[in-house]
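Hi R.,

As promised on Friday, here is the backbone we talked about, encoded as structure tokens. Could you run it through your design pipeline when you get a chance and send me back a sequence?
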């Protein structure tokens, strides 16, 4: 019989997660990121799988992409912890317009980041891995509230300066 931690992830899997966390630390990932990944892995087996994939991956670019995926899982857990939510319905014909607005917003924010000190400094200040920030700024995906607030705090921006229609 397998020993299972309260959340349903087996203790054997969690032992592997802790070993991966130790490896992540030797690769200079921040303690805050690693702790958040381990916490998310306790509740979400998908994060366990991502951490194990990261451990086994040898291509640095793929590893960076996996780190970005882990950050997405962490942010997802913060925004909707353990509950089912219904996403808003967006009409198909409005998607292009919305994507353009998001990209314009992210470009404006990126300009502020560059003036402030750049992505590397932002990664250090926010605890968000640099690959996750690169993905954030280069995609037209809807920004997560948690990511926006971390960036705003790092740049000393007020909520009014960072808030947009999709986070109010």
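Update: got your reply. Pasting your designed sequence below so it's all in one thread:
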């Amino acid at each position: 019989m397998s020993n299972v931690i309260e959340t349903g992830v087996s203790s054997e899997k969690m032992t592997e997660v802790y070993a991966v966390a130790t490896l992540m630390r030797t690769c200079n990932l921040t303690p805050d990121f690693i702790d958040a990944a381990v916490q998310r892995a306790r509740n979400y087996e998908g994060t366990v799988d991502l951490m194990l994939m990261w451990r086994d991956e040898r291509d640095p670019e793929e590893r960076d992409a996996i780190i970005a995926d882990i950050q997405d899982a962490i942010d997802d857990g913060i925004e909707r912890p353990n509950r089912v939510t219904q996403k808003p319905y967006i009409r198909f014909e409005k998607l292009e317009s919305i994507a353009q607005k998001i990209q314009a917003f992210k470009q404006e924010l990126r300009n502020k980041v560059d003036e402030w000190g750049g992505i590397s400094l932002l990664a250090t200040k926010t605890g968000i891995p640099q690959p996750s920030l690169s993905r954030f700024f280069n995609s037209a995906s809807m920004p997560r509230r948690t990511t926006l607030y971390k960036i705003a705090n790092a740049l000393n921006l007020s909520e009014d300066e960072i808030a947009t229609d999709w986070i109010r």
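One thing I noticed while checking it: Residues 9 and 131 are 27 Å apart (CA to CA).

Thanks again,
M.
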